[in-house]
Amino acid sequence: MADEEDHQETELSDNQKIDIAKWFLLNSPPGEIQYVAKDLRSVLRDDNAYQMAASEAFPFYNKTHIISLQFPDRSGDVLVSSFSEISEDEYLDPRTAQVGKIDHVKQICTDIRPAKDEELPTPYIEEYRCALDAEVCKYVAEAYPKGVCSVYCISGKDVEEPGSDFELVVLITATRLSPQNFCNGSWRSIWNIEFMDELQTVEVRGKMQVGAHYFEEGNVQLEAQHECKDSTMFQSPDDSSFSLANIIRHHETEYMSSLETSYSNLPDSTFKDLRRKLPVTRTLFPWHNTMQFSLTRDITKELGIEK
Amino acid sequence: MVFIISQVKNHNRTGGEAAMGLMRRMPPKHTETALTALLSLLPGHSSDLLSQVDQPLKVLRDGENEKEFILCEYNRDADSYRSPWSNKYHPSLEDGMLPSSELRKLEIEANDIFTIYRDQYYEGGISSVYLWEEDDKQGFVACFLIKKDGSKDAHGKRGYLNEGGWEAIHVIQVGPEQEGNANYCLTSTIMLSLTTNSDESGTFNLSGSIRRQMKADLPVEDGHLCNMGKMIEELEGKLRNQLDQVYFGKTKEMVCTLRPSPDLPSMALPENIKP
């Protein structure tokens, strides 16, 4: 074993400490960054380094995990993401046309204000956005017991009338935190929807990510993701939204069943390539009679047929 | 004979506890990075951390017989590692620690038999067994290691896995003979990661590690190798089943809770399946 004195007690630089702290924070499983932060502080024993790391890591983590935070007046939720970001601590909720002020490290929404006109799309775009939001909400309410969704315009929000392209993004997230059962998980999907005016088509790109962590007397994590593409016709706001929500439903349902297939393939195919349940002989290993192996080996040696 | 499976206890110091708390949250595939980071932050806890967190196993080739062997703390002396095949250190080391000739005899036999065991369960992979005397010379310690790359480019016979690693570390303390029996205390760790990848279903990765203990008093006349082997086979099988049914099952249950399939109303595991 390595002796304690073998380890060089060289002091880490502040920057090294901050980098290490950021690494731990950013690798936190879904919903666990606060627990990681707590343990990290006792390991780090350097509050300045921790604060520096937290101020950089939390905003990044919150946005990539697309965390959902409730408005202080409970009038709705705001999703923290790069699509809803107005400034580092301000995020738009297009449904209520409100902007939530976020405390990234505490992961709470501390204040709201009405969105300014220039932060919102034109009425022409808003009609599409709003119709899609309504359809996606319906679907999310059916498919996810605890789902949150939102639709943003990320390009062309100043388009006033037909004749130009624009792009909407649908975010769907669902998180389940059950730390008392040592289990947490999250689902998030991002749907980029490009309305191509000239071609009169709508191009759809989806990315779905699922993570789960079970850690009672162990540490097992699932990380799965899938990307897909589809397209539909550019129609009226209502008709487009209806077919877009169907496309999303179709791909997410397909993906969900492929996840279940991956799980059901584990015991007899995938996991078997790591280790079999039983030996190739289909009986437990003959520990009481290993002489047979020595004999076989001696014979092969004698006959000179050793590999 | 009575087998007790128990959780390996964490020790009580705050820094060490917090470090172990971090280790059970970090993605298992990043164990090595996480451990290196913790060792640099908590140099005073290094031996505690190293004894409680198992690192991914590395492999060297024994030039003498072109066979690979596994590296761990138990066959290390200075910066060299002893091959179980030639009993020589790589890179070579003068006065490197060697087991007594009696123990070395058992070590040779253990390596031979464990190779067959590994082939029968793993259909590939590498295994190494190391034995050494306890300081008080009363008993001895054995370490059985298995490393397998089950990906389709390596030893994954069925070709399902784009990436697949399995590492098993079994450390077993064998007490002195008392009234015909010896006490065996086995600590087993399994670390694994498997990834499938396809256009239809994307990337699917499960990774994890668990560690359990098992103790037994067994008659020495059955032979140390037979006794140790049976315990390892039993605990390794249990860990595999727990990973498959309980640990993977729990992550599946979680996914199905997030987005239940319309035709499968309940995916809950029966209450009696617990780790």
From TrEMBL, chain A:
Membrane-traversing stretches: none
One GO CC term on file: F-actin capping protein complex
Pfam family, one: F-actin_cap_A
Keywords from the UniProt entry: Actin capping, Actin-binding
GO MF term list: actin filament binding
Subunit architecture: Heterodimer of an alpha and a beta subunit.
Matches recorded under PANTHER family: F-ACTIN-CAPPING PROTEIN SUBUNIT ALPHA (PTHR10653)
Name of the protein described by the UniProt record: F-actin-capping protein subunit alpha
Organism from which the protein derives: Lactuca sativa
Automatic annotation (TrEMBL), chain B:
Top-level taxonomic group: Eukaryota
Name of this chain's protein: F-actin-capping protein subunit beta
Annotated family: Belongs to the F-actin-capping protein beta subunit family.
Pfam families recorded: F_actin_cap_B (PF01115)
Organism: Lactuca sativa (Garden lettuce)
MF term (GO), any: actin filament binding
Cellular compartments per GO CC: cytoplasm; F-actin capping protein complex
UniProt-listed InterPro entries: CapZ_alpha/beta (IPR037282), CapZ_alpha/beta_2 (IPR042276), CAPZB (IPR001698), CAPZB_N (IPR043175), F-actin_capping_bsu_CS (IPR019771)
